[in-house]
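Input.
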Amino acid sequence: MKMHFIGAAHEVTGSCTYINACGKNFLVDFGMEQGVDVYENAQVPTSPSNIDFVLLTHAHIDHSGLLPLLYAGGFCGEIHCTRATANLAAIMLRDSAHIQEFESEWRSRKAKRKGQDNVEPLYNINDAEGAIKCLVPHDYNEVIEVCEGVKIHFVDAGHLLGSASIEIWITEEGETRKLVFSGDIGNKHQPLIRDPQYLSEADYVVMESTYGTRIHDRPADYARELAVVLQRTFDRGGNVVIPSFAVGRTQEMLYFLRQIKEQGLVSGHGDFPVYVDSPLAIEATAIFVSNKESCYDSEAMDYVNRGINPIMFDGLKLSVTSDESRAINFDRVPKVIISASGMCEAGRIKHHLKHNLWRPECTVVFVGYQAEATLGRSLCEGVKRVKLFGEDITVRAEITILPGVSGHADMLGLDEWIKHITSPGKKVFVNHGESAVAEQYTAHLRDDLGIDAYCPYSGAELDLITGEFSNTEPVPIVRTSKPSTAYQRLVASLDRLSAIVQSSKGLTNKELGKMADTIANLCSKWGS
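Output.
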């Protein structure tokens, strides 16, 4: 009965934990790393084909984004999650695959002009579709026996539609241990979705620390604060550009904008247009509406019960095609443009920044976390020039950060969440935070709250029976370069080949010989 820390150890993204118990191998999350990737992650200590199932806390790509790569490597088990997470993950994984394919095609064209090799996508749409077929949806507050000896329970984490903390009971050889994975813990009093729900006991807790050293400066009224920004920008004749995560943050912004229009908080600009320029965001908005009964908070449900859709309103325009997207910036009427990605690293937002950053009458409003080394973080930190599509752009637009609009709990919210778990002797493992933040929050848990807390690096292995680390503290390896997508796909192919070989015992000698010759020819071709 062991737990291995793999991803989001001393880093914010790439969440992944591996557990071996009851004769099963399973993962909690398998996310993509985004922004700065400081440390080399340990490898999951078994091949994808040997992973029996995955538990998914929520649909964000830094928790789900490598599931198609897992499938490409031979995984064919079940991915357990909440019903809303299954809905959202389906569209997000397809979108991620399209981005992988588009960017590899674009980079391949550039490489071809330089006489270099093509760039392979990390995974493709077929891999994403395969992973989506593995999703198994569950309701909140349903206890599920995943296999003999392992039971799970999803509890609303209040971070995103369908997000969950996961309780896991593992019983092996008469010993039972309870694990809790926080997932991403939500900020309280967010629009649309419910506040995080609390748990009461656990032997081991793995919890996030994204804002473990900060206290959110919450505006007294989000809608009024945003309306002030809109008013002064429209009065200058400019656009308000909001880089926004397509799933979650976009729907929250629509909720605020509906309130602004409903209460007449912006004057002199008529029924100002609001463009949502993200096919993914449009699909996600429909999923929010379809999951309202299980996920909306009481305020949002009050709208619903009065026959009002809380995230739709007059003046809302949805841009699906590329032509519709391009047309937005040729219309000189002051407007709100909401587009993905939220950290400005990909997608249509980069085109809108190209057209608006150089205009002093415009405003770019950041409403979500910006990871290190992303374009969004650079703009928040006051960079004066950026490069977009090979062109140098001078930053003259107003850059505004709307404080408090965060899907993550701050330090006080994290403290409140962990204080509810009152089990004596519990051990807490802090991850999903920038290295200094995770370490400081761990020290805060130990020194100020008296909690037995640790901040493990990737590769640390915990014996769940004794509660002790099975290996010496792993030495963090600073990443000098990121492996190419082609290499990562090659590793996944090797895992799949290994699985085929292991399952070939029942074949005839002729079939086995043919397989061996094929593999030998491959080895000869590539010099091994």
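DSSP finds 16 helices and 22 strands in the chain.
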